[in-house]
Amino acid sequence: MIANFAAMDVRPGSMGCPFSLLALDQIVNNAATLRHMSGGQLSVPLVVRMATGGGRQLAAQHSHSLEGWFAHIPGIKVLAPATPADARGLLLAALEDPDPVFVFEHATLYPTEGEVDESAGPAEIGRAAVRREGSAVTLITYGGSLPKALQAADRLAVEGLEAEVIDLRSLRPLDTRAILASVARTHRAVIVDEGWRMCSFAAEVSAQIMEQGFYDLDGPVARVCSAEVPMPYAKHMEDAALPQVATIVATVQERLGRRG
Amino acid sequence: MPILGADMTAGTLVAWRKQPGDAVKRGDIIAEVETDKGLIDVEVFVSGVLEKILVAPGATVPTGAVLAVIREEGEAPGVAPPAAVPAAPPARLRISPTAKRLAEELGVDPATVRGTGPDGAITREDVERAAARPAVAPPAAPLAEADRMARMRQTIGAAMARSKREIPHYYLATTIDMHRAMAWLAEANLRRPVTERLLYGVLLLKAVALALREVPELNAVWRGGQVVRSEAVHLGVALSLRGGGLVAPALHDADRQSLGDLMRSFRDLVQRARTGGLRSSELSDPTITVTSLGDQGVDSVFGIVYPPQVAIVGFGRVAERPWSVDGTIVSRPVVTATLAADHRVSDGHRGSRFLAAVDRLLHEPARL
C-alpha cells in the first residue's frame, strides 16, 4: 500500500523501525523492485523515516537496529543521519530521489541541537564524512553510535592515540572509497555498529576492507556491536548490551596492543 | 627465553630441535639459544606435546618471552589436536599485511623483527624500528668469537659489579690438611681403570656439597628481598674458557652423586662448557659456586658471590707445606679453602661451621 501511494507520488511519513517489519513485503517485493520489473516505466519515489535503535529502555521489541537488513536489498537507499544538519540535508536528498529511500534516525539523537544552515541544499547521498581526523586508527560508525565514537576518540586522544572518526551517513550506497582512504592512512579499523554483530552492517564494512584494503591493514579489523541478545529492559543490562564509549576505547587499545 | 645468567636480558633462538606435534618429556632439549655464554641447549620442564612454536629461528627475544606452547599430558588441545597434523610446518610468522609489505620494501627480514602487536604480531611500527637499526649485526649469525668474548666480559663485569654493590660480603679462610684425602685418593685410583680415575678436585666438590647439608643457609638464592633455601645442592663449578671468560654451570645434586658419578659429570660438564652444548638448567640452577685456581699455582682465591646465589667457595692449590702434627713439624699436602658469603643471609659464625665441616669431611675421604 505504501508503494501504491508512492507510485502516485504521495510520500508517507515516519514509523518506528520495528513496525516496518509489518510492511516488509511491500518494501522488499514492491518498492524495491518496481523500477526493475517495469523496465523503468515505474518508479517508487518513497521516503520512509524510521526511529531506530536502543538506549531508551523500550526493551526487546522497540529497540531494533535493522539498518543492515534494509541495506541488504538492491533497489532501495538507506540513510543514517547523525547530526542536525544531516537530518535536514539527507532528508532533502531523499525527497528529491526518484527511488525508495529509508532514513534511519536514531531515537536518542532527537534531542541533539545544532546550527543548521537553512539555505543549504540537499546532502549528497553515498558520501561519508570524516568527523574527526586522526592517524592511529579509523573508527567507522553511523547514526546513534557517532557521538559515542567521538567521545571514545577524545578519551583515546588523552593517551596520545588520535583516532579518525568516519560517519558513514549513507549505508546504501556505501562510500567504500572514504573508508579505504582512511584505513590506508591509519592501517587499523574498528567498526562501531549498534546492530547485532552476527551478519551486521559492520560485517559488510569489515568484508569490504578485507577485500579491498587488506594490504593496508596492520591488524585485524575489529567490531563493536550489540550483544547477541534481545534488548533487555533493565537500564544496566541495556547499557551492557549496547556499544559504549568504554568498550570502544578498550577495543582500540587492545587492537593497538596498548593494554597492560 | 630462560634467564641463563644473572645479567642476561635477551637471547637469540638459533634452532628448534623439536617440531610442533612432537612429544616432549621433561629434560628433553627443545631448542638451541645463543647467549654471550655460547650456544645453550634449552630443556623442557614439562612433559607433553609441542603445540606451537612462537619464535622463529634467528629472532632475538627478551628473557621471559614465551618461545613455544607445550600442551601437557592430559590437557585439552588449545586449538586443534596437533597429533592430527603430524608434519605441521613451522609456526607461521604473525605479521600484519601492511607490515609484511613494508618489510619487503625496506629489505627487512621479518624473522628478525620482534613483534609488539597483539599476540606478538609484527606491526608496521616494529618493521620501521627494525629498519632504523641497520647497525646491529643480524642476530641470526652466530656471534664472532671476539664479540662473544667482549660481551662475556661485559656480562661478568655487570654481574660482579652488581654483586659488590648489593651484597655485603664477608670472607673466611682456613687451611686444610689433605694428607688423608690425597693418600686415600692415590690408593683408590690404583683400583680404578685409567679412564675412571678421580681427581682430587672431585673430593673437594663432594666435601662442599655434603657440608652444605650442615649449613643449608649457604645453599640458597636471594630472590625478591629474601633468601630462598634450596633442598637440592646444585654446585656451580667455575670453569675458565679457552680464549678467556668463564662460566659456572651446575653439577646437579652433587651431594647425592658417588665420587665416580661426580667425576664423570664433571668431565662431561667441562667438555660441554668448552665446546658448546650446556643445558639451560645447568646455567640457571646453581645454588652456590665453587671456584678453584689450584692449577694456576695460587694459594687461595677469595671469590665474589654470583647473584642471586649467597655464597662462593674457593680452593687454592694443594701444596706440600710444613705442618705441625703432635708437636712435630712434618711436610703435608694442604689446601686453603675460602668462603665469601652474603651477610644478609649468614654470618661468620655459620660460615666457620661450614669451612670446619669441609675440613672434617676431607679428613674422612672414604665416607665421601
Summarize the structure.
The complex is a heterodimer of chains A (260) and B (368). By secondary structure, chain A is of the alpha/beta class.
Can you put this structure into words, describing what you see?
- The complex is a heterodimer of chains A (260) and B (368).
- With 260 residues, chain A is an alpha/beta fold.
- Chain A has two domains: 2-109, 3-Layer(aba) Sandwich (Rossmann fold), CATH 3.40.50.970; 129-255, Rossmann fold (3-Layer(aba) Sandwich), CATH 3.40.50.920.
- Chain A has helices at residues 2-7, 24-31, 34-37, 67-71, 84-96, 146-158, 176-186, 201-213, 235-241, 245-255; strands spanning 14-16, 47-52, 77-79, 101-106, 129-132, 137-141, 163-167, 170-172, 189-196, 222-226.
- In chain A, β3, α5 and β4 form a beta-alpha-beta unit.
- The model of chain A has no long low-confidence stretch (mean pLDDT 92).
- Chain B has 368 residues and is α+β, with helices and mostly antiparallel strands.
- Chain B has eight helices and 19 strands.
- In chain B, a hairpin with a 2-residue loop joins β3 (29-35) and β4 (38-43).
- Chain B is elongated and about 85 Å long.
- The model of chain B is unreliable at 79-88 and 135-140 (pLDDT under 50).
- Classes of the chains: A alpha/beta (260), B alpha+beta (368).
- Chains A and B meet through loops of A and α1 of B.
Secondary-structure element string of chain A: HEHHEHEHEEEHEEHEHEHH
Helicity level of chain B, as a percent range?
25-40%
Q: What's the Cα radius of gyration of chain A?
A: 18 Å
Which value, in Å, is the CA radius of gyration of chain B? 24 Å
Number of helices of chain B: 8
Instruction: Give me the CATH architecture of the largest domain in chain B, please.
Output: 2-Layer Sandwich
Q: How many DSSP H or I helices of chain A? A: 10
Spatial strand order of the main sheet of chain A: 1-2-4-3-8
User: What's the CATH superfamily of the largest domain in chain B, by name?
Assistant: Chloramphenicol acetyltransferase-like domain
Query: What is the subunit organization of this protein?
Result: heterodimer
CATH topology type of the largest domain in chain B: Chloramphenicol Acetyltransferase
For the largest beta-sheet of chain A, the strand count, sense and barrel status come to: 5 strands, mixed
Mean pLDDT of chain A: 92
- 3D shape of chain B: elongated
Relative strand content of chain B? 25-35%
Overall tally of domains of chain A: 2
Number of strands of chain B: 19
Helix fraction bin of chain A: 25-40%
Low-confidence residue ranges of chain B: 79-88, 135-140
Overall 3D shape of chain A: globular
